[in-house]
Design a protein that fits this description.
alpha/beta, 11-stranded mixed beta sheet, 10-stranded mixed beta sheet, 9 helices, 18% helix, globular
Length: 432
């Protein structure tokens, strides 16, 4: 890890509170032990191929000084979201543009870069989720956290249109560290869209998303990952929910070489509810890797997870999920479902659902399937004159449709459906 030194970390600048956090993580770099597939949480992954010496952090000189915003609006990717309340553009982990509806700004809503938070509003919140579930990659992330997006919604404020965050990473052999911190205080409401794109050979994206949902608050969150074909992603998305809080979180994963998302939700307050959705499609030699945790720590909580994926060519997917109901989680409900289509002989999918139940008055279930396209469905469409390639496309899109229709930002359903369709068709259609 010669490129990831404490000296390189110190050059990134920013407010004192952020540099202190970064320095504390940098002091731990020399002691990092990289995970291996011998660990259950990394089983079936590609982590044994990870070589940190292939990468180097983006130098401070290329990032530019914090607060130097000089890029135009978010273009097509932002426009697809339709009406929005705010926009943040993040390049290589540092905010290069931000904007917010003045009416919301007057009510105390904040949309800005972490590296320009000189009054330290984000300091008590940053790391509250990720520090509760650390690993080697979160330590590396904290040591080179150049900035990232901060969305803060005060008590009782409703943000009706989504806030869009565009993360763009680039550079050959570079490592970037996107961060999104969303704080929704008591009784507030907000929708946030994270869109990730990258370009470059051997690029590493080490991302963290923290969603802090206060008592009675409601957060709708959508992440769309469309990385380039030579990008490795290792990401943590973690949410903490208060009393009667609600979270609807969805992930769409289409890009990358190896793309891992650790999605965790902790339901800390009675009456908290979370709905977690994902759609993923892999082709070529891609690998999509999902590890989920639904952690119930309070009574009368509810969580429901539905992840659906498809793989073709020599692509692989991994889903490993844990539902944990602690002794305090009486009268809670938790459901976990993972469905996978394997479209060609060279592709593969692993699905490992798990339950850990320490309460005796709960409702809980898990289910998983891995299999090919149903021949009866193909036959039905063939008898109606639909060509095989078109029939398979219709079947796969039908398989995804119930998840796409439940995405929390309705304006993005059509463009995401189109992106999934392009992904299916880009190699000439699904092959029998």
């Amino acid at each position: 890890m010669t490129a990831f030194s404490a000296d390189a970390s110190r050059t990134l600048g920013g407010p004192d509170w952020l540099t202190r956090r970064r320095s504390a993580a940098a002091e731990r770099l020399a002691d990092l032990v990289w995970p291996s597939t011998a660990e259950e949480i990394w089983r079936y992954s590609a982590v044994d191929r990870f070589d940190p010496d292939r990468y180097a952090p983006v130098p401070a000189g290329e990032l530019g000084p914090p607060g130097a915003e000089a890029v135009p609006g978010g273009g097509l990717l932002a426009a697809e979201a339709g009406e929005r309340s705010g926009l943040v553009v993040v390049r290589n982990g540092r905010v290069v543009r931000h904007e917010l509806d003045p009416a919301l700004e007057a009510r105390g809503v904040r949309v800005q870069g972490l590296a320009t938070d000189t009054d330290g509003v984000a300091e008590p919140w940053l790391g509250r989720c990720s520090d509760a579930s650390p690993d080697a990659f979160t330590v590396l992330h904290d040591a080179f956290l150049a900035g990232g997006a901060f969305v803060h919604v005060p008590r009782g404020v409703v943000v009706s249109a989504p806030i869009v965050v565009l993360h763009w990473s680039e550079g050959d052999g570079r490592a970037t560290f996107p961060h999104t911190l969303v704080v929704a205080e008591e009784g507030s409401e907000v929708s946030v869209v994270d869109r990730y794109s990258s370009r470059g050979r051997d690029h590493l994206v080490d991302a963290v998303v923290e969603l802090l949902v206060g008592d009675g608050a409601h957060v709708r969150y959508l992440s769309v990952q469309e990385h380039g074909p030579e990008t490795w992603q290792v990401a943590l998305q973690r949410a903490h929910l208060g009393r009667d809080a609600g979270l609807r979180a969805s992930a769409v994963a289409l890009g990358g070489d190896y793309a891992r998302l650790r999605s965790e939700t902790r339901l800390d307050g009675p009456g908290a509810e979370s709905d977690l959705l994902a759609v993923y499609f892999g082709d070529g030699h891609q690998m999509h890797d999902f590890r989920t945790l639904q952690d119930h720590t309070a009574p009368s909580t509810r969580s429901n997870l539905l992840f659906k994926g498809a793989v073709e060519d020599e692509a692989h997917s991994v889903y490993s999920g844990l539902v944990r109901l602690r002794p305090e989680a009486q009268r809670s409900e938790a459901y976990q479902t993972n469905r996978n289509l394997v479209l060609t002989d060279g592709a593969g999918a692993e699905s490992i659902p798990n339950l850990e139940i320490e309460a005796n008055d709960v409702r809980c279930s898990h289910a998983s399937t891995v299999g090919p396209v149903d021949d009866d469905q193909r036959y039905y469409l063939a008898t109606r004159g639909i060509p095989p390639e078109e029939a398979d496309r219709l079947i796969v899109m039908g398989f995804f449709e119930d998840v796409l229709n439940r995405l929390p930002v309705r304006s993005l359903v059509t463009p995401i459906r189109a992106a999934v369709t392009r992904k299916i068709e880009q190699r000439g259609g699904v092959r029998a």
